[in-house]
Write a structure and sequence with these properties.
Blueprint lengths: L3 H14 L7 E5 L4 H17 L2 E8 L5 H16 L3 E6 L2 H8 L3 H20 L3 E3 L4 H13 L4 H4 L5 E6 L4 E6 L7 H10 L16 H16 L3 H30 L6 E2 L8 H16 L7 H11 L5 E5 L3 E5 L3 E6 L14 E3 L3 E6 L2 E9 L11 E4 L8 E4 L6 E2 L8 E2 H7 L12 E3 L4 E4 L3 E2 L11 E8 L11
Parallel strand pairs: 1-2, 1-4, 2-3, 4-6
Antiparallel strand pairs: 5-6, 7-10, 8-9, 9-10, 11-15, 12-13, 13-21, 14-21, 15-18, 16-17, 18-19, 19-20
Helix pairs in contact: 1-2, 2-8, 4-5, 6-9, 6-10, 10-11, 11-12
């Protein structure tokens, strides 16, 4: 049988690995069961040495009626015997599960961590401490492995991690200092201190997958492979070390790829291994959403495939997010986001003479006759110079129409406007909103992109027509930067 000092030594080491500072206030998730009772008692023993302030928080889920009330009384008795502040919260989890249409287990988890997050905030605590043991770690690794998880799943639980539950608006620091402590040590420590913990009979039910692993799979595995639980815990540590290296590489590449606009450069992904690109996409999604909930391997595969193909396309992802690929960039947009610099499609407008014409969205287009500049290369893509006789033509400002054709500058044949947009890498979500300057002879200018070949300035022209996309104060709208 292990001595009390061995248990305390393991717990003290776990607190160090969880990076818990001396003098911290800690919320202890306290069910009153063997593991959390050993945890609370051990923390109480370390309280003076570590200058810890402890608050034991118990959640009565009302799942097992009278048994839940009994567990609450047991938890309170143990906390008071250890001279630890005790708080309890009673929740009707079955009713919450029915109302939110989720399983009782999921409803309980969300509610439990919501209570803990509030307690952490109320007490300005460093985080919430849970009683997860080495056996729990082994079960987690085995469960994730059976489900075909990657390194993240195989790495199991961390000593110190940030838990995010968006559905419950929860963000919480979770501390697990007993991940290297066997469950048998917890039982022995409680026994040595004459602590009689609450026993949850549901832990013996084989209706739950994790219970089947705990009761049947792991014992059989330990019998076949001695100390298999310890080896699985070691596997989690090895996977964590490898994942740390991978994350470091991914962070470096995603930092290089990220642009000031919040999108990412496609050029920086060229030649990278597909696996690295996939992890960059996952990192980008996580940065945009704040978590990876509901993002599955199939979504990552679709993003990777899209990135290798034509620009101007997009796909829908979980959590109301769209992944888009443009000619030079890719990125993520949430429903309601609008990155298009042009207003929504507008009514066709006559540009019969020089002047400034409102486009909406704080944009306008200015048409004027000016002396030919020394350089016809405009300062940005939202200014163009064209033949002088265009001002006298019947000009219109509109958006694209079915069947539009256009003769881009430098090209002989006319092409479908749709094909031009694809070749120019115009995002599909922008194409219906890009202003088009039209005339009786045909399209003159695709605003922000290309002048027509037939409308170009000729050597003999001393004056030219200048088209400028401007803001209401007539400042040049340089969106190229």
């Amino acid at each position: 049988m292990s001595t009390d000092s061995e248990f305390i030594e393991l717990l003290d080491s776990g607190l160090s690995q969880a990076l818990v500072p001396n003098g911290s206030t800690l919320i202890v998730a306290f069910s009153g069961g063997p593991d959390s009772s050993a945890l609370l008692a051990g923390l109480a023993a370390l309280r003076e040495r570590q200058r810890l302030s402890l608050v034991a928080v118990h959640v009565n889920h009302q799942i097992r009626a009278a048994m839940s009330d009994r567990d609450q009384s047991t938890a309170q008795r143990i906390a008071e015997s250890l001279n630890v502040t005790f708080q309890s919260v009673v929740l009707d989890i079955p009713a919450q599960a029915t109302a939110t249409k989720v399983s009782i287990e999921l409803a309980a988890r969300r509610a439990r961590y919501g209570v803990m997050a509030k307690a952490v905030a109320d007490h300005q605590a460093f985080g919430v401490v849970t009683g997860h043991t080495r056996d729990d770690q082994a079960e987690t690794v085995l469960l994730h492995a059976a489900r075909g998880s990657g390194l993240k799943g195989i790495s199991g639980m961390d000593h110190n991690s940030i838990l995010r539950i968006p559905e419950a608006s929860v963000e919480l620091r979770v501390l697990r200092p007993m991940l290297d402590t066997p469950r048998t040590e917890c039982l022995a420590y409680c026994d040595n201190l004459n602590i009689e913990p609450a026993i949850d009979e549901s832990n013996n039910s084989r209706n739950y997958t994790r219970n089947k692993i705990r009761l049947d799979v792991l014992p059989a595995l330990n019998e076949s492979v001695p100390e298999a639980s310890q080896a699985l815990s070691r596997l989690a540590k090895n996977a964590t070390d490898d994942l740390e290296i991978i994350d470091w590489i991914v962070d470096r590449h995603i930092t290089v790829a990220r642009e000031a606009s919040g999108s990412y450069s496609r050029f920086t992904t060229e030649g990278l291994p597909r696996g690295l690109i996939s992890r960059m996409l996952m990192k980008g999604y996580e940065s945009h959403v704040g978590h990876l909930n509901n993002l599955e391997r199939i979504h990552v595969s679709k993003m990777s495939n899209l990135l290798e193909r034509h620009s101007g396309t997009s796909i829908e992802l979980p959590n109301n997010v769209e992944f888009y690929v443009d000619k030079k960039t890719f990125g993520f947009r949430s429903t309601g986001d609008d990155d298009c610099p042009f207003p929504m499609p507008a009514t066709e407008t006559d540009l019969t003479e020089s002047g400034t014409f409102d486009l909406g969205n704080d944009l306008s287009i200015k048409v004027e006759m000016v002396d030919r500049p020394a350089k016809l290369e405009a300062s940005n893509q939202y200014i163009t110079f064209a033949a002088p006789d265009l001002v006298s033509q019947s000009l219109k400002l509109r958006n694209r129409k079915n069947g539009d054709r256009f003769q881009p500058l430098g090209m002989e044949p006319r092409v479908k406007l749709q094909d031009f947009f694809v070749g120019a890498g115009v995002p599909e979500r922008w194409r219906d909103r890009i202003p088009v300057v039209d005339s009786d002879r045909g399209i003159i200018w695709i605003v922000g992109y290309r002048l027509a070949e037939w409308a170009k300035v000729l050597p003999e022209h001393t004056q030219v027509t200048r088209f400028t996309l401007t803001d209401p104060n007539n400042r040049d709208k340089d969106r190229a930067d």
